[in-house]
Design a protein that fits this description.
Elements: E1 3-6, H1 13-22, H2 31-39, E2 43-49, E3 52-61, E4 66-71
Antiparallel strand pairs: 1-2, 2-3, 3-4
Length: about 70
């Protein structure tokens, strides 16, 4: 398995929800809000095993402070 790391926001919503459900994160129960929050992050890093999303991390910032909100 070779994991590819990407800094992109063009991620299919269903792939994100699938990842959250696999990790039993309650945010998966609010898919529209979750997707909107991730797409509005200052940074979104994704991890891919081929065509499968296997991890992600996002961060928000006010220009001075950085807050990392999720890492899988």
């Amino acid at each position: 398995m070779e994991i590819e790391i990407k800094e992109i926001k063009e991620v299919n919503k269903e792939k994100i929800i699938e990842l959250y459900k696999a990790n039993k994160w309650s945010s998966a129960e609010k898919p529209d809000l979750l997707y909107k929050a991730l797409m509005n992050s200052d940074s979104l890093i994704t991890a891919w095993d081929g065509n499968r999303l296997v991890g992600l991390g996002n961060a928000i910032s006010d220009g001075y402070w950085l807050f990392i909100t999720r890492i899988f």
